[in-house]
Design brief:
There is one protein chain. This protein is α+β, with helices and mostly antiparallel strands. The protein has three helices and nine strands. Strands 1, 2, 3, 4, 5, 6, 7, 8 and 9 form a nine-stranded antiparallel beta sheet that branches. Strand 3 and strand 4 form a beta hairpin. The N terminus is likely disordered.
């Protein structure tokens, strides 16, 4: 009994085991090919963390379980191609969508998208798109 209690205390702070991850989150991990994924349901941290193309990322979900944002940690950048599978067709097919850029952060809302990152040429930008994929703001530095 003493060993079981010790084991429970030692594992209490560890991320959820694979069997505890909901199927939709497992699908998201697979779609992104997310490495070292950690699922943190119901606490103050990101809902999901892991390594995407060598960059640590935080992934937050809306309360209804849909994707809210993906953000690179520690000044990292994520190639747009690494998350293309998650970007709605309306946005991805927009002539203004920076498909060759590197994203620091992308936010997904029902009627809008916001992206921060670097263009393929290395310039910082912030872009906003409406739900139909039309560019509504483009700031470049």
């Amino acid at each position: 009994m003493k060993h079981i209690l010790t084991l429970l205390l030692m594992t209490a702070g560890l991320p959820a085991l694979a069997k505890d991850i909901p199927p939709a989150i497992s699908d998201l991990i697979s779609q992104l090919d997310l490495e070292a994924a950690r699922w943190h349901p119901g606490d103050d941290r990101a809902d999901l963390e892991g390594r995407l193309h060598g960059t640590w990322v935080e992934i937050d979900l809306h309360r209804n379980g849909t994707l809210e944002e993906i953000q690179a940690e520690h000044d990292g950048l994520i190639p747009a191609s690494a998350i293309a599978v998650l970007v709605p067709t309306a946005l991805r097919s927009s002539p203004d969508y920076p498909a060759d850029a590197f994203f620091e952060k992308i936010e997904f809302d029902r009627d809008a998208f916001e992206i921060r990152g670097r263009t393929a040429g290395g310039r910082w930008f912030e872009a906003k798109f409406d739900g139909s994929g039309h560019l509504t703001k483009w700031d470049i530095k």
